[in-house]
Amino acid sequence: MNAAVYLRKSRAEEFHAEDTLNRHREILTEFAAKNRITILRIYEEIISGESLCARPQMLALLADVEHGDYDAVLCMDIDRLGRGAMSDQGVILETLKAAGTKIITPRKTYDLNNETDETFSEFETFLARQELKAIKRRMRRGIQKTIQEGGYIANAPYGYRKTVLKKKPTLEINEEEARFVRMIFDLYVNRGMGCQRIADTISAMGAKPHRSDRFGRTSVMKILHSATYAGQIVWNRKSKVKTGQKWTETANPKEKWTVVPGLHPAIIDRELFERAQAIAKTRGHPPASKSVRNPLAGLVFCAACGGTMQRQAARGGDCLLCRKPGCTASSSLFAVESAVLKQLRPLMEKIAVERRPRPGGPAADNEWDRAAKREASLLERQKASLYDLLEQGIYDPSTFEQRKALLDAKISRLKQAAEARPRPSLPKHESTVSAYALYRGLPPKLKNLLLKALVERIVYRKEKGAPPLSFQLQIILKPLCL
To answer: What tens digit of pLDDT does each residue of 251-307 get?
Structure first.
């Protein structure tokens, strides 16, 4: 029997994760040897089992299972495969069932094409989901208690390092970084410097943030607004909401914030921090924009320093400049984009792009219908399993009725959505155009995506004092475009 081994440990248990995974690997390897099971591949990851889309090794395993690579999947327990949403659990179990792949644990073997095993596996995954919810509730209570008592549980901000005080996580001052934090507040409050000038000043003095090569305006502003440096803990400023498979972050009103004195020492005094906040309210700070306005974003690099060139708004039109002050002369963004297109035009003319139907057209409808049918089929199977659980005495009549009503409501909503879905008619045949002809009518974000599909990087060179159009570009194409 050919099998794969799947090993997973949650990030919540990450401290001992490597030791645990090694121990599980040894146990399953010995088990396979004793039972004449050939292990073809081992998939392992340290990640929560809640979201399937965030588990690359599980997705790779499911793809290989669909290809019929394995007769079985070995794991320590069935909840190691996942204990997230019912839809994610359904995808895992249905993929294994359709491929005829068994689930083997040291305790039990599950054949999902056997009705009893299928029911038992669904019940165990249901219990695993309930256990996960209970663990998350306990973790939230523990985090809230730690915060209320002044503990610091996030990553250490610039100027601090993590430590433990009275068995609680907190911070201690990293003096090498803290001197730059004090300098930031002094330059901002007492000398009237702006954030960009402060960032350039401390970067020239050797200061480096934790996740970048140099400070920028935004990183300086975050330090100025952080009450952590004044000895406080501020928690619950933002909330994360999951919509489908995507998480979005929203700011909470101040009355919902948790603000308490921290166990950690302050780097600056409270008066200086409040003065910085008062000054910030009187100054205009351009908001960060998540929309792509530069079609060359992330593609153009300075030949002198190797840094990424960025767009900057100017009175005569957007320009492209190096982030390192005084490094390389800037140029018009439009002129650089036009020069790039001129070099790429022969290649782009050869690439035919199909004008696909807009979202909501036949292709999207077909995909939506297939997804709806899969979801409806899964719900019907879950509903059928309820009767088995009732007959076996696992569910009492009250629990059975509650679960049945919930599934009936989901099935009803799915059918209503399918019936109400608009289906606009589109032409049967869509024309094709060259990538170059298509490019001109695209918004900056799609232009950027099209260029990134062709170009690896663009090296920009221009001497100081040179005429506006006297820049040189070296375009390095991706291997498939050569």
So the answer is: 888 888 888 999 999 999 999 999 999 998 887 555 555 567 899 998 999 998 888
Strands 2-9 and 72-74: parallel
Within this chain, do residues 189 and 261 fall inside the same structural domain, yes or no? yes
Note whether 205 and 184 are within 8 A (CB): no
Helices (H) and strands (E) in the chain, counts: 13, 19
Q: What is the pLDDT of residues 418-465, one digit of tens each?
A: 665 554 443 444 466 688 888 877 888 889 988 998 999 999 999 988
Q: Which domain holds residue 82?
A: 2-135
3-class DSSP assignment, residue 438: helix
CATH number at residue 13: 3.40.50.1390
Q: Return d(Cα 434, Cα 349) in angstroms, integer.
A: 5
Same domain (yes/no): 76, 177: no
**Is residue 11 over pLDDT 60?**
no
Q: Are residues 325 and 458 in the same domain?
A: yes
Domains in the chain: how many in total?
4
pTM over 0.85: no
Which one-letter amino acid corresponds to residue 338?
A: S
CB neighbour list of residue 466: distance below 8 Å, 6 or more residues apart: 329
Distance CA 110, CA 133 (A): 25
Helices (H), 67-114: 86-98
CA angle 56, 61, 62 (to 5 degrees): 100
